[in-house]
Amino acid sequence: MAAELEIDLEPLIETFSLKDYQGINRTFIVKRRIDPEGIFLEAAENIEFGYAFAVHGELHSNQTDLLNKLMAKTRKGLTEQQVERGVFPNGQEYNTIIHDEFIGFIEYDESSDGTPLIIIDGKPFTWEKVGKMLMTYEGFQIKVRMYDMTDD
Description:
Shape: elongated
Mean pLDDT: 92
Strand order of the largest sheet: 1-2-3-4
Oligomer: single chain
Helix content: 10-25%
Distance between the termini: 26 Å
Structural class: alpha+beta
Strand content: 25-35%
Order of helices and strands: EEEEHEEEEEH
Radius of gyration: 18 Å
Number of strands: 9
C-alpha cells in the first residue's frame, strides 16, 4: 500500500517500554498501517488484553513525530489509575471507579455469551464487573461516549 500511495516508510522502533502508575514496566509492540486515509500507528502491550494506544497522521506526516505522539499518548495513559481494587473484611474482592470516570476499550470475549470485555488500566473487566462498579452510582446520570482509538 505504501508504494501505491508513494509513501516512504521511515524506520521505526518495533517495541518500547514504559512504567505504569504502579512502576510496573510495560512493553509495547509498535505496528504501522498505511491506507488512503493516512498513517496509523498502534502500540499494543505484548500480553493478551493489555493496554493499547493508537494515533493517526496524514499520508505525508513525519512518521518519527507520529511515533513520538504515540509514545506520549501511551505515557499519559499509563500514569493515571482508573480502577482501584480492594477487599472487604469478609475477604470478598471489589473494584471501584476512581474520580467518577474511566476510559477503556472494548474487546471481544470468546468465553461469554456475546458480552464484551472492557479493558481498563490494561486489565480485562467483564461486562458484569463493570456493571457492579457502576452500581455504586445508582441514581446518577451516565454519559457514554464512543470514539476511535486514534482520537484524543
